[in-house]
């Protein structure tokens, strides 16, 4: 990236995926439910039942367990999650149900 040589293959590396997952897991805890993209779009991750602060366990379940279940389902869960977001009134996807979270507009 520094030299201007960036390819999609670099995003498939284990190191990139591990760092990105770590970013998505830790940053919302430190920034009150935001990552950079969610802050720009003015949406944030919140706990579903009690609106308390996010915990490391909730975020690990959301990002690691909830999203990597996609690998086990060969992408079927991506389609199901997409349909859930489109069709459900609360716009919660599979990883939101597993972790007990939702994304809320400010």
From TrEMBL:
- Report which superkingdom the organism of origin falls in: Bacteria
Q: Give the bilayer topology.
A: Multi-pass membrane protein
Membrane spanning stretches: 20-37, 68-87
User: Keywords of this protein's UniProt record, alphabetized?
Assistant: Membrane, Transmembrane, Transmembrane helix
Q: Domain RDD: where?
A: 18-100
Q: Where in the cell is it found?
A: Membrane
Q: Which InterPro entries match?
A: RDD
Q: Which GO terms describe its cellular component?
A: membrane
**What is this protein identified as?**
Predicted membrane protein/domain
Record the organism: Solibacillus silvestris (strain StLB046)
Q: Upper taxonomic classification of the species?
A: Bacteria, Bacillati, Bacillota, Bacilli, Bacillales
